[in-house]
Specification:
mainly alpha; 10 helices
């Protein structure tokens, strides 16, 4: 069957990946349409047709980032113990924040830091995105409490929030130039603060 309409003429996924990097480096407000379209290799008409307006493009970029660059967060939730869940997440996060082939820091943190729009929709959207990850971690930690893997009385919501504070703090420091080793040193301290019901695994 023949396909109607003019061929798009560019790789949408590749263009979106380039938009991710621009938003990551410059934040939502700092990324102009000219910056975006030049990096994506398309004109504004093509951008609007494929991705919608700038805000819609940003939403698509964050979803792409979550799918690819944040896959380690979902993988960490499958670890057998709460300690291993948190360690896997924070270690992989420290590595991701300092990849040589990506901007330093985290898109979901960096993207909204310069957002100054009247409604603050971008900052709110990013906060909601981070909160969704925190809730997923809290559910996994709640299961650990039920299974006796975490001590009875452990507050899974507060513990998940603590882990995310460490992660987001490391993101800010990575963007400011902190080394991978420095971030892992912070993770070492954070892991010692986790409630335990049995001895830590050998390292």
């Amino acid at each position: 069957m023949a396909v109607r309409g003019r061929p798009r003429g560019f790789d949408a996924d590749e263009a979106l990946d380039r938009a991710v990097e621009i938003f990551w480096r410059q934040g939502y407000e700092g990324a102009s349409l000219t910056d975006l379209t030049e990096a994506m290799g398309i004109n504004r008409t093509s951008m609007y047709a494929a991705f919608g307006n700038k805000e819609e493009l940003f939403h698509r970029a964050v979803a792409r980032y979550a799918e690819a660059d944040m896959a380690y967060a979902r993988e960490a939730l499958t670890e057998p113990t709460a300690y291993e869940v948190v360690e896997s997440f924070l270690r992989a996060n420290a590595d991701a924040l300092t990849r040589a082939d990506r901007p330093s820091g985290c898109l979901s943190v960096q993207g909204g830091l310069a957002e100054g729009g009247e409604s603050g929709r971008i900052a709110s959207f990013l906060a909601d995105s981070r909160l969704a990850g925190e809730h997923a971690l809290a559910r996994r930690l709640a299961r650990a409490v039920e299974e006796g893997d975490l001590p009875a009385g452990t507050d899974p919501d507060a513990l998940a929030r603590y882990v995310m504070v460490v992660s987001e703090g490391n993101a800010v420091h990575a963007a400011a130039g902190a080394t991978r080793a420095a971030l892992h040193a912070t993770v070492d301290i954070a892991l010692r603060a986790l409630p335990r019901t049995h001895a830590a695994p050998a390292t």
